[in-house]
Amino acid sequence: MKKVLAVFSAVLLAVGFSFATPKFMDEEYAKQFCELWNKTPELTDGLSKWATKAGKKGYRIIRFYRQDCGGPEKAIELHIAPKDGKAICIYGGKATDEHADFLMYATDKNWKSLAKGEFGFMGMGIMTKMTFKGSKIEAMRNMGPFKTFLKNLDKVPHTMECP
Description:
By secondary structure, the protein is of the alpha+beta class. The chain is 37% helix and 20% strand.
């Protein structure tokens, strides 16, 4: 029986199946986070108006990374496009060289705190726990969906190994 399981496992690995849990903010995590985005009405509906300001490229970019694991070279991003009146994630993966609408980075400790919903009074603590680059006015106008985005960070199963 052990031989059968070993052979079966080897075959699965050989054809590309992986049962590994993604690392927090690696490319696989970004892909799964994108899928979660599309299942979260607070994001798809709540950011529908924001997504329409996509410009020539047709989507907006949210880029983020963990300071504890490197710098911008380790960033991942989501591409959010307007589709059928919703803000739909069309890409989750490694950061591109395109200009991001929002860039966020923080320590692992602060990412964990934000993912738990520890935002402080009226959400004002968010900007003290992370570095945020982009329109703070847009972020403040969309504080509800922004909080949901942060809480979703912990909903994709992951390890805390650096990518």
